[in-house]
Design goal:
mainly alpha, Four Helix Bundle (Hemerythrin (Met), subunit A), 2 domains, 9 helices, Arc Repressor Mutant, subunit A
Length: about 220
Amino acid sequence: MVRATSDSPRTLSERAYFNLRQDIVQGLLAPGERLRVEHLKDRYDVGAGTLREALALLVSDALVTVEGQRGYRVSEISLGDLKDLTDTRVMLETEALRQSIRHGSPQWEAELTAAFDSLTQAELQRGGLEPSHWEPANKRFHEALIAAHRSPWSKHLLGILYRHGERYRHVAIRMGATQSVQRDVHEEHTSIYIAALARQEARAALALESHIRLTCDLLLQHTA
């Protein structure tokens, strides 16, 4: 099956994939929870075969694990996994940003500006950091930053890593870790945007790394 590449599902299996993925990322399906096809097909209003196709995609995204003949489970989370995820994302995304800055055209600048403006609107409006309103704009901004990078593999892998990062952001929110420190997310994004638009590779990469690592740092501090 061809992997779904956008958040606009075209088939029943894509719809089931997106809905399951959202519920896992948001914690509605808990880490380690058993995923029984006979129960989930009614919850998501799809057939068993369609649901298995969606679960297979989630296995390849590492959001679901398969246990041989025992079926599927939501992937576990851990601080060790978060550290590894964060280090890997920093390594890939900062280099992708550097390459995007080097190769970005005026169209890249315009699309980055449009993404930043949309994110700014989401962040400055009342309740703008509520995930359902903020997350799509945040995702669009991060994708726009690296849009001029010429590696489809990097973008594919970063898409998977982003979803796992989003999952941990929801964990941080549920645990109250995001309330334990004063954080100006809009200022973080502004610093990245200004440096990227000015073609300041090193400055943009450092700002992006700091931004990515903060969720990890907050959870580590909260659980210490």
